[in-house]
Recover the amino acids of this structure.
């Protein structure tokens, strides 16, 4: 498995609507495995394909943070939210494409999601707590939406400027 470089905002590839996956090919399975390795290595709790420059509808997540519990990786092809609760919750969100920046985002507290798994089977499940926030954040990536898009323009611009500076520093080495 390969650790892939994660794109840093601002990048035009992070603002694109991604394409659905017709079937789970070996290439797609390899990409999912690489994304899980990349996510665990970062470390993070979720990663979407556009964050590694692939504009396809694929996300991976594992919000199990307790070290005593086995990892609980989930691979979702073509995920879609089929139900969301009236109740809302607020989380201090971050993103591997926007390193070290956090801000409160309000979203539905519970969601039901339908997706195609690694074996090509259609699955449905309900998520709450951190899992609900994470799966919505990752599905947003497939629409070219970042968590900072929910913030007030001034705050968003401040974070974007910080990221531009970070990218210049990274380019310089
Ligand atoms: Zn993200």
């Amino acid at each position: 498995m390969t650790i892939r470089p994660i794109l840093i905002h601002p990048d035009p590839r992070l603002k694109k609507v991604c394409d659905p996956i017709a079937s789970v090919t070996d290439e797609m399975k390899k990409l999912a495995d690489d994304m899980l390795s990349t996510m665990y290595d970062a470390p993070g709790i979720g990663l979407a394909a556009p964050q590694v420059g692939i504009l396809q509808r694929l996300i991976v997540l594992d919000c199990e943070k307790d070290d005593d519990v086995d990892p609980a990786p989930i691979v979702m092809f073509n995920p879609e939210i089929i139900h969301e609760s009236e109740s809302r919750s607020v989380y201090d969100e971050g993103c591997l494409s926007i390193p070290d920046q956090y801000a409160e985002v309000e979203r539905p507290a519970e969601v039901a999601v339908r997706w195609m798994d690694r074996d090509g089977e259609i699955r449905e499940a309900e998520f709450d707590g951190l899992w609900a926030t994470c799966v919505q954040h990752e599905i947003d990536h497939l629409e070219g939406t970042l968590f900072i898009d929910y913030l007030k323009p001034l705050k968003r611009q401040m974070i974007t400027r910080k990221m531009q500076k970070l990218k210049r520093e990274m380019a310089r080495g």
